Amino acid sequence: MLTVLPLGCYGSDLEEKKCISMRISPSTIIDAGAILSNMSKSELLKIKHVLITHSHFDHIKDLPTLADFMLSYGFNTFTIHTTRTIAEQIQKHIFNDLIWPDFTKLPGKGTPTITFEYFEFDKPFTIDGIELLPIEVNHVVESVGFILRKNGVSIGYSGDTHHCENFINALNAEENLRALCWETSFPNRLAGIAKNSKHLTPKDLESELALVNRNVPVWVFHMKPSMLDEIEKELGEIKTDKPIRFMRQKSPVVAG
């Protein structure tokens, strides 16, 4: 069985709705938008791997405080898995001893709280029994989507993206695909903002789904919480043969 558990699944923070973090195993999280706010101390201490899809704030905002937490509770460590470019962005602009201490050097030389491990697009790797195929997607900064595989089933995860042939081609080539997690950030009336920021509207998602030849459920995430009702209404009106479901925090996406 393969499970994606949303700790946060929205395109911003508003009241109880949190930014993006997806737990795919007790030790492995995709993105760091809502790690500390939705996990207990015992759960946090199990984290060993954080995969970062891109460097935008809503996907990395808990990395600094997670590092501080890990150091504070017995010098625990974790690895940030991402591309070299995204790692350099995070290192330069966050862990730079100006915005936040450089936890690659703390608590001391040779004993880092965080380490970076790079992956490359289109080259699968395995963490905690889950194979991940990183796919370059179409966002305003270098960004990653994934095909997640375990026990003969797979889930497609778009990350933040506009129209993306790379992602669609990977989905159509995936014989054991059982579910899709696909971003839709803005309502149709804000199509211009969606295009310029390289996100999707419900109408855009309808066009993307028409290109996918796998009839599997689609879990929509990254919706802006201030416009949630409007986006969900429009998603209910799109024409597709695939079941559309709205991702919710702590409600797992399960394939198997």
What does this protein structure show overall?
There is one protein chain. The chain is α/β, with parallel strands linked by helices. The protein has a single domain (2-255), classed as Ribonuclease Z/Hydroxyacylglutathione hydrolase-like (Metallo-beta-lactamase, Chain A). The protein contains 8 helices and 16 strands. The strands form 3 sheets. A 7-stranded mixed beta sheet has the order 8-5-4-3-2-1-16. It has a 7-stranded mixed beta sheet with strand order 9-10-11-12-13-14-15. Strand 10 and strand 11 form a beta hairpin. The radius of gyration is 18 Å and the shape is globular. The termini are close together.
**Low-confidence region ranges:** none
Shape: globular
- The main sheet orders its strands as 8-5-4-3-2-1-16
Mean pLDDT: 97
Largest sheet: 7 strands, mixed
Cα distance spanning the termini: 4 Å
Computed Rg:
18 Å
**And the CATH topology?**
Metallo-beta-lactamase, Chain A
Topology:
Blueprint: E1 2-8, E2 21-25, E3 28-30, H1 41-44, E4 49-51, H2 57-60, H3 63-72, E5 78-82, H4 84-93, E6 107-108, E7 111-112, E8 114-118, E9 125-127, E10 130-137, E11 143-150, E12 153-157, H5 165-172, E13 177-183, H6 191-197, H7 202-209, E14 218-221, H8 228-235, E15 244-246, E16 253-255
Parallel strand pairs: 3-4, 4-5, 5-8, 12-13, 13-14, 14-15
Antiparallel strand pairs: 1-2, 1-16, 2-3, 6-7, 9-10, 10-11, 11-12
